[in-house]
Amino acid sequence: MTKPKLTDITQAGAENLVCLSEKFHTHPRYHDFYKRYCDEIHGFTGCYDLVIRMAESLTDWEENRGGKELYDNTEVIWDDLAGRYVDKFFETALVKDHLPNAEVVFKAVEPRADHSRRQLKALASNKTKEGLKP
Asked: Nearest-CA neighbor of 61 among 83, 53, 26?
């Protein structure tokens, strides 16, 4: 019996899911988030549901811009984008005190056409100064 091959979109989604899950579950504010929302999201497995929705949003955004090749053809840095997405999710959840919608959070961090590599590095530098994981 042969193992099924992942399609490009499934591979892209899997890569995003793994990356976002790592950033989500190792985020410095994860434990604060879990204490606050554990009952609302129905425990630990609820975190997986949230990360899956985040990965779907990121993957949809990529697919609408030509797939993973967009990172080779633009100034967007995948790891930085995923990190900013998770940072914004926790900020929204803990500072604004409501469970955020993954799509709305992504719109707040999605790269605009005018983001240059220098601007993205400045965003990462500011996060480091604020004590957030770059």
From this structure: 53
